[in-house]
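Q: My labmate handed me this sequence with no annotations at all. I'd like to see what the chain might look like in three dimensions before we decide whether it's worth expressing. Could you predict it?
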Amino acid sequence: MVKSIKIFNKTDILALEIQENLLQENRDGKMGAFKKAANFTDPSEGGQPKKIIELFGYKRNGTFLEAGGHDGIFFSNSLLLEVEYGWTGVLVEPQPGLFDSLLKKHRRVAGIQTCISTKPTKMKVQLVMSDSDSSAERGSSALKGGSIKVDGYSSTELSINCYPLISILKATGLTTLDVLFLDVQGIEVDILKTVPWQEVNIKMIVLEIYGPPDVIAREKDAAMEVLGPLGYKFVTQVAIDYMFLK
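A: Here is what I predict for the chain of 246 residues:
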């Protein structure tokens, strides 16, 4: 489904590495399809996909990348887009147990068990899984000081490679993308700063921002410092997600 990658730089090499070693492909549905129950309801926290589909004019067959994929359902911002409007895309989740659960849902997506680097290169970090980490219940990764804390079922650690966002987009053939969801516990802007924007075309970026009002204001301003010059405008907030549209 994804075209062969031509190697021009280091991000291309990393994209090829992702394709060959990490990419679990089911965008064509050959591995099965998510079974929508008769009483299916949107699992998102605040109705984010309903607002997104409205802003996109009820577009069908759009594309997304959701970082913080959790188990594929919990607080998912992309599932409604997939099952109701035919969208597909990529789910990124670093925690092994959650990623295995995600794959078993047979969503029509490509899954990648990794995290997104805060540098334009591959980073090796420690994945720290602990039941007591309440902040990780959202299924996202928090990369601070060389470690990532995520929800897990025991207090364990393992090393994991984080890849640049551009390499993930290239690996999945999504350098042109409708919606990028970043739910990565405070490093959203750091990730945005790594993107070679001349190589991508992303219509909407959704950032999770939460905390005291001064923190929210600071993070939103930091995001606009990166996104404003690129033509993005802040359009709305749904729950703790802030939407920027180009």
